[in-house]
Amino acid sequence: MGLPKKKLSTTRRDRRWVRYKLSGVALVECPHCHKKIRPHRVCPFCGYYEGREVIAVKSEKEE
Ligand SMILES: [Zn+2]
């Protein structure tokens, strides 16, 4: 019931991710700062999403 009949070998199991790694991570251009960002995510550079500022981003590296 929903279980694989045979155990996948380490090679076959890991080969599943090769295509994913080759295709790379999907990137879109931020409409605000025009940097490459992940789609459907708040831009980590300017904090904008859907045309408005969602999070406050510090320009300098300080915590
Ligand atoms: Zn941005």
UniProtKB/TrEMBL annotation:
InterPro entries, per database record: Ribosomal_bL32, Ribosomal_bL32_bact, Ribosomal_zn-bd
Biological processes per GO annotation: translation
GO-annotated cellular components: cytosolic large ribosomal subunit
Keyword Ribonucleoprotein: yes
Keyword annotations of the record: Ribonucleoprotein, Ribosomal protein
GO molecular function terms listed in the Swiss-Prot or TrEMBL record: structural constituent of ribosome
Recorded superkingdom: Bacteria
Residue spans crossing the bilayer: none
Keyword Ribonucleoprotein: yes
Matches recorded under HAMAP family: Ribosomal_bL32
Family in the record: Belongs to the bacterial ribosomal protein bL32 family.
Identification of the protein by name: Large ribosomal subunit protein bL32
Highest classification ranks of the organism: Bacteria, Pseudomonadati, Dictyoglomota, Dictyoglomia, Dictyoglomales
